[in-house]
Amino acid sequence: MGAGGGLEPGWIRLDVDASDLRAVTHAAAQMAGGVDGVEAARLEAALNARVAEGHIALGEGIAIPHAMVAGLKAVRTGLVRVRSPLAVPDAPDDVPVDLWFVVLGPPGDDAQHLVAVANVARLARVEGLLETLRSSADPQAIARAIASSEVATDAPGAGPDSRPLGGARDLVLIEIEGEAAVDRLLLDLAGHDFEDATVVDGLTLSEVASRELPLFASFRDLFGDPGGRRLILVVADPERSGLLTRLVRRACRETGARAGRVSVLPLRETWRWEPERGAGGGGH
């Protein structure tokens, strides 16, 4: 999850002695300092500001402090493992945090920032990975384990270019109720290349990210009453409709959602506008 996608060994710090959250951000900034010519002091200030806002803990001893800093050219992710877990006030399970995934990126690259945070959340559920992250003393081994887990969690055909042009499409209507379930589902949608999923009020996930990050609290703030029912629309290939159903089912079961339902409507294309570049174009 460096600039190219994987967690680079140079962006991993193990068994850091940190007595408070500022010591963690200092270690992260020193780790990343100088990337794209951005000095460590600016990165540290941005991370401190983000941590002060709260809502960085994912649960299970994991936190994802993240910040957008002018001068950075790509979204990158690093890992700081502290020797003694630190309490985070708003951790959803009150478990002290020892694994700190730090996401840094440029302003304006909101969609990639969102995907990077979602990928960390998805990796946290890979069986056996957290044990490796906590026990290994080799940064390269940790980087390999994360890279292998990223490959394993990629759904076949999940890429945006997998849809056959002009193929059948489904309209998937997701109804879900419950604060934790909504958080989990939105992260999963982003992590499985459904960033263009649309909430009924008209905001796509990318647009939500551009308005406000972090994800967890801000999603609830933007979408209204915490824990209220959410409607999400997704246009997907028929073979990916099943994946959406599985994501909703998992979010509901793992978080104890109050309600959840998925409805699938086959779409029949009757007209399409695809103007040719440099020409007047027309409909088909």
What layout of secondary structure does this protein have?
Blueprint: E1 12-16, H1 21-32, H2 40-53, E2 57-59, E3 62-63, E4 66-68, E5 76-86, E6 97-105, H3 110-123, H4 129-135, H5 139-153, E7 169-177, H6 179-191, E8 198-199, H7 205-211, H8 215-222, E9 229-236, H9 238-255, E10 259-267
Parallel strand pairs: 1-5, 3-6, 4-6
Antiparallel strand pairs: 2-3, 5-6, 7-9, 7-10, 8-9
Helix pairs in contact: 1-2, 3-6, 3-7, 6-8, 6-9
Description:
By secondary structure, the chain is α/β, with parallel strands linked by helices. The protein is built from 9 helices and 10 strands. The protein folds into 2 domains: 9-152, Mannitol-specific EII, Chain A; 169-266, Alpha-Beta Plaits. 38% of the residues lie in helices and 21% in strands. Strands 1, 2, 3, 4, 5 and 6 form a 6-stranded mixed beta sheet that branches. A 4-stranded antiparallel beta sheet has the order 8-9-7-10. The protein has helices at residues 21-32, 40-53, 110-123, 129-135, 139-153, 179-191, 205-211, 215-222, 238-255, and strands at 12-16, 57-59, 62-63, 66-68, 76-86, 97-105, 169-177, 198-199, 229-236, 259-267.
